[in-house]
Amino acid sequence: MSYKKLALAAIVALGMVSSVQAEDEVVPPAGNAAQNQGSGTIKFHGFVNTGACSITPETQNQTVELGSIAKHVLDNGEMKSTPKPFSIKLENCDTSNLQDKTVSTTFTGDTIQDDILAVTGDVTGAGVALGLENGTPIKLNEAIVNPIMDGSNELHFSAYLQGLGEQGGVTPGEFNSSAQFTLAYQ
């Protein structure tokens, strides 16, 4: 074999080896920087219940904004703020194993007076009260029964700040309160 043919064979063989190696390398597309341009972690959390329905994530744990309430509203007249609506949304309901096709909702929490939830923060002389959609006050620790059907259902409630009628009225400032709810299907 001549020197020229040997050199040509070596060049062809080298080209084949380098193209095989190139297939193993990760080469970013042209014009795309190979650096990290953002990253993060996505966490997933949930709970599997034994009830007839799933509670939508956005209504399982929620915050009801009662707003900025003028002190005189809580010291005079009805002594309560404007009720703010909230709901508990149920989905994927299967009522086939329910005798009455109802759901009972029971609210609990730390109280300052009968059925008035205690507040934390600067405010004194007031607490948070819960009501039905029509404004009827809710008694804590007592079940509220609603009919349900297969599919999606929405349970409607309201919350408001209630003045307690104490000497000196309500102390202004920021407040927080919380209630827990439990569902039972019949």
Automatic annotation (TrEMBL):
Coiled-coil blocks: none
**Keyword set includes Signal:** yes
Q: Which ranges carry the Fimbrial-type adhesion domain?
A: 43-186
Name the keywords, alphabetized: Signal
Q: Does the keyword Signal apply?
A: yes
Q: Where is the signal peptide?
A: 1-22
Query: Which Gene Ontology cellular-component terms appear in the entry?
Result: pilus
Could you mention a single GO BP entry for this protein?
cell adhesion involved in single-species biofilm formation
Return the InterPro entries for the record: Adhesion_dom_fimbrial, Adhesion_dom_fimbrial_sf, Adhesion_dom_sf, Bact_Fimbrial_Adh_Pro
Q: What is this protein called?
A: Type 1 fimbrial protein
Instruction: Give the organism's phylogenetic lineage.
Output: Bacteria, Pseudomonadati, Pseudomonadota, Gammaproteobacteria, Enterobacterales
